[in-house]
Amino acid sequence: MFKFSFQSDSEIRKDFTVLSRIIRDNKFDIIALQEVFSPNALGRLLDYLGRFEWDGVWDSPTSFSSIAAEGYGFIWNKKCMRLAVTTLPDGTEKTFRPHIYNQYRVDRRLGQTQLIRNPYYARFEPLDGSFCEIRLINTHIMFSKGNSTSQLLDIGAVIMRKREFDILTQALYNTISDKRYGNNRPAYTIILGDYNLNLRTSGAAGAFLNEIVTVQDKGKIKRLITVQDKLTTLKANKAGSQEDYGFSYWANNYDHFTYDMDRFSSVSAVSSRINTVKDYCNGDYELHRKTVSDHVPIELKLNLK
């Protein structure tokens, strides 16, 4: 998962050579991107990766805030993954197309309303013979109040983020994870992205979410766990390397994966932060912010066999 942070050609040019190296070197199968403001940016990255081996999709949700508009992307290695395919009763096959997801209910008794920026939903099948599918809910929880007509933004920014997280886990996750399609493949569903909320074990200063939440659905109880407790965002206006000056340029632990503990109990799932500042920018944090991202990528390795 990678926060792309590409806004326009007038911005300092992202280094697509470095971005493509990060993806290839770490042997990612699927990459979920946030803050991809233009489909041209995703297309340019695919050109650098090589379209014979890589494919991708882009979409932008309708925003309920003037400062929330942005796009999402998915990129996948065509040698390892494909978009999920359902065999219809007549024998034809239908490929599932990723889309902005807005089919969920909110609990207004808890102060919930519609997400300010709806997530991007995709289904993938591995090509190694594993009979399963991976369902990804690519999200970017709104950070601050800013300018908006939405009543959500009349409350404190942190409370708003927590309510958005509650909607993702308490309402939207169940709808997606429990759905079955024609091929009836076992499904592993993951929320992932920039939550703008920290785990307490990260050492970040505040804006905490609960590591484990309980979700009730039709008499059943799910326990959703959020993982990845390393700091992933970079402080602004700090030239040079943190090691040279003896203080930290890491800011917050905003980037996470969330999934059903019981559903994943038979699956090896290991999350980690990839220090692309050290490995690809010689420890220069400001260079990384300008040419790569103000976040470093995180990874979830799954062993489905």
Describe this structure in words.
There is one protein chain. With 305 residues, the chain is α+β, with helices and mostly antiparallel strands. 19% of the residues lie in helices and 30% in strands. Helix 1 (16-25) packs across helix 2.
Number of strands: 16
Shape: globular
Q: State the helicity in percent bands.
A: 10-25%
Number of DSSP helices?
6
- What is the percentage of strand-forming residues? 25-35%
What gap, in angstroms, lies between the N and C termini?
A: 22 Å
Radius of gyration: 19 Å
The low-pLDDT segments are 147-154, 242-246
- Write the element-wise H/E pattern from the N-terminal end onward: EHEHEEEEEEEEHEEEHEEHHE
- Tell me the major beta sheet: 8 strands, mixed
Show the helix and strand layout.
Layout: E1 2-6, H1 16-25, E2 30-36, H2 39-49, E3 54-59, E4 72-77, E5 81-83, E6 85-87, E7 93-95, E8 99-100, E9 120-126, E10 133-140, H3 157-177, E11 187-194, E12 212-217, E13 220-227, H4 242-245, E14 255-260, E15 268-273, H5 276-280, H6 285-291, E16 298-303
Parallel strand pairs: 1-2, 10-11
Antiparallel strand pairs: 2-4, 3-4, 5-9, 6-7, 8-9, 9-10, 11-14, 12-13, 13-14, 15-16
Can you tag this structure with a few keywords?
alpha+beta; 8-stranded mixed β-sheet
Task: Describe the structure concisely for a colleague.
With 305 residues, this protein is α+β, with helices and mostly antiparallel strands. 19% of the residues lie in helices and 30% in strands. β1, α1 and β2 (30-36) form a beta-alpha-beta unit.
